Amino acid sequence: KDIQDRTMSGKLKRVREGKLWNHGLEKFGYRRIKEEGRAVFDPEEKAILEDIIARIFAGESAYSIAAHLNAENIPPPWRRRGVTIKGKATKGVWRHGTIIGMLRDPAYKGFGAAMRYKDGAKGNAPRSEWITIPDAYPPLHTPDEWDQLQIKLSEIAAKKSRARNKIVPLVFRGRVVCARCGHPMNTISRSYDVEGGERRQTRAYACRRRGDDGQLLCRPWRQITTRYVEEAGWRAIAEAF
Fold first, then answer.
1. pLDDT of res. 24
2. Nearest to 224 by CA among 207, 208, 209, 204
3. Contact (CB, 8 A) for 28 and 39
4. At what angle do helices 143-167 and 96-103 cross, to 10 degrees?
5. What pLDDT, on a 0 to 100 scale, did the predictor assign at position 121?
6. If DSSP states are collapsed to H, E and C, what string results for the chain?
7. Which residue ranges of the chain lie beneath pLDDT 70?
8. Is residue 222 within 8 Å of 204, Cβ to Cβ?
9. How many C-beta neighbours within 10 Å does residue 66 have?
10. How does pLDDT run across 167-213, given as a tens digit for each residue?
């Protein structure tokens, strides 16, 4: 623990001096200059980023872009950085979530900050606890361009949601709340076995609200099948008319 405390103390001292700390995965499109405590563009990755963004503005989905990158055998961020798991090279591929999460990063509009997350990736820290690092990242966009990109990402996500609901109707998505804590419930998939050993999938609404420590607040985990909610909801609508 003493070593961890000293390490964190050194990191905090560095960011308070306006320098990036030299740990963790580098952001896609950038390379850190460790001695200077700032990042510069990686030309090859910057070109990939610009192509991804152009496709987004053209209305292409993140799923389609991920498929294109994988077909072109372009390694995703962690593979390009040589990340290993238990000493073995990672074999992951681009996924739509990788692209969306990457393009949501404010570093691409030139905003650098440390201490944005609590306890690793368990949850976002309050904005008041962030430590900004001016001029840490050269901007790929102006703030207005970045805002337009965020709007486009949201539009594409909404379009995907509508298409998904045509296949698996979830008309009460976002309107089902937990009876215990009042928090909106998320949709999940869960597996179950039937006679003969066949394994099937069903969907459910589940409360996945987490506290500041990243732990689920509703225990035991509250969930209800989407089929029951849909049937009960439509029955109530029919009775109302």
1. 72
2. 204
3. no
4. 150
5. 47
6. CHHHHHHHHHHHHHHHCCCCCCCCCCCCCEEEECCCCEEEECHHHHHHHHHHHHHHHCCCCHHHHHHHHHHCCCCCHHHHCCCEECCEECCCCCCHHHHHHHHCCHHHHCCCEECCEECCCCEECCHHHCEECCCCCCCCCCHHHHHHHHHHHHHHHHHHHHHHHHHCCCCCCCCCECCCCCCECEEEEEEEECCCCCEEEEEEEECCCECCCCCECCCCCCEEEHHHHHHHHHHHHHHHC
7. 1-8, 82-91, 118-123, 158-169, 195-197, 211-216, 219-221
8. no
9. 20
10. 556 777 777 888 877 788 888 877 777 766 677 777 888 887 776 65
Six-digit token string for 86: 């238990």
Alpha-carbon span 159 to 165, nearest angstrom: 10
